[in-house]
Amino acid sequence: MSLVLTERPEVTPGAPAAPVLRGPLDFPDSPLSRSARQPLMLGLFLNLQDIRISSVPTSNSWTYDYNVELVKKADALGFDLAFSRTQWLPKGGYDGEASLDSFVALGAMAAVTQNILLVSTLHVLYGPWHPLHIAKIGATFDHIAKGRWGINIVTGHRAIEHEMFGWNRIEHDQRYEMTAELFEVLHRLWTDTENYSHVGRLNPWRVHNGYITPKPAYGRPILVTATGSPAGIDFAATHSDLLFVTSPGGAHIDSALETLPAHIATIKARARALGREVKTIINPVVVSRSTEEASWAHARAIAENKPGADHVQFFQNNNYDSDALAWQGRKDARNKQGLGLGGNIEVIGTPEQVVEQFAALKAAGIDGVQLSFYDFREDFDHFTREILPLLKEAGLRL
């Protein structure tokens, strides 16, 4: 998949040639470039919906107030980014009845934060979104956030979500081809200084004399893609700044560390072949106490106390049909299984052991960790008191 710069159906007469595309990492003073200079970027992977993986008590809440306080705290501590999933599921599809939209919620946080990058998840093919809507709303959030806002690009892997919008699920690789065309147009709308027109080749929309102002501060908003398939990696290598990876080896940390280096090397080589750089981030769930025994005891308690019959539709049992290749392909290299704590990998242990595991992830090629906690309020407090200073001592944070 290559980025089309010259094909311009229905081009406005007299319009200039397509510009060289530049993203935030091409600007040394951009907020993303600032964060990328950290040895290991730190972020929060928020829960803007009810997620109940266990009946062990937790303070977690889907509410905006709960989550914005976490993000404000992370901002004050120097964390680099925050984002959350968005899902479109029918009644009974969520663990509870509430789920905020990440596109709106993370954009809203721009007005009450100073430095942290805010990434809004958006299913870009549902609706369908028109590129003018995405370009204008994105430029507005970028203006409010002064270059700190971005999009986590989701093409949609569950048939039930496509069907909610009146579509049959689009074939996996075709979704990325459609999304590539969309972002080719968005790049033009975010950068062209004259009107721009385009007739969709794969998408059911057209743009006639489209124009967006203000322009984003650093070429375009930050772009993130969560993927592991060849088609997804090609798309991310062409368009994205951050690639949200899945451990090919499963949730167990040893298996992840065995399988991640080759996977990340493939991703970065693909980007370099296109003359670009992408950063890789991953989502560990962190369970830590003062001793190894207490850490594992708490992790096992979470795993062994699944919700009862009144919550049979809890998050990890929402087995809606999915064609997400990255998750289907996970194989545990050492036949070790994770405990099912949520997150992409499980980091369990004392503060010192957590830092050791983070250092190993960095050595495997990971550029940043997007943290989840079983209890965000309590466990994030523990992380900031006990683990963050050790990360600085270990040279993983400046």
How would you summarize what this structure contains?
With 398 residues, the chain is α/β, with parallel strands linked by helices. 37% of the residues lie in helices and 15% in strands. This is Flavin utilizing monoxygenase.
Report what the structure shows.
This protein has twelve helices and twelve strands. It is α/β, with parallel strands linked by helices and 398 residues long. It has a single domain, classed as TIM Barrel (Alpha-Beta Barrel). Strand 8, helix 8 and strand 9 (279-282) form a beta-alpha-beta unit. The radius of gyration is 21 Å and the shape is globular.
CATH architecture identity: Alpha-Beta Barrel
Percent range of helical residues: 25-40%
Mean pLDDT, as a whole number? 88
The coarse overall form would be globular
Strand percentage: 5-15%
Number of domains: 1
According to DSSP, the number of beta strands is 12
The structure class reads alpha/beta
Task: Write down the CATH topology.
Answer: TIM Barrel
CATH superfamily: Luciferase-like domain
**What is the succession of H and E elements?**
HEHEHEHEHHEEEHEHEEHHEHEH
Radius of gyration: 21 Å
Q: If strands are numbered along the chain, what order do they take across the biggest sheet?
A: 1-2-3-4-7-8-9-12
Q: Segments where pLDDT lies below 50 for 5+ residues?
A: 1-19, 311-317
Largest sheet: 8 strands, parallel, barrel
Distance between the termini: 37 Å
Q: Any idea of the CATH class?
A: Alpha Beta
Keywords: Flavoprotein, FMN, Monooxygenase, Oxidoreductase
InterPro entries: Luciferase-like_dom, Luciferase-like_sf, SsuD_RutA_monooxygenase
Protein name: Flavin utilizing monoxygenase
Organism: Azorhizobium caulinodans (strain ATCC 43989 / DSM 5975 / JCM 20966 / LMG 6465 / NBRC 14845 / NCIMB 13405 / ORS 571)
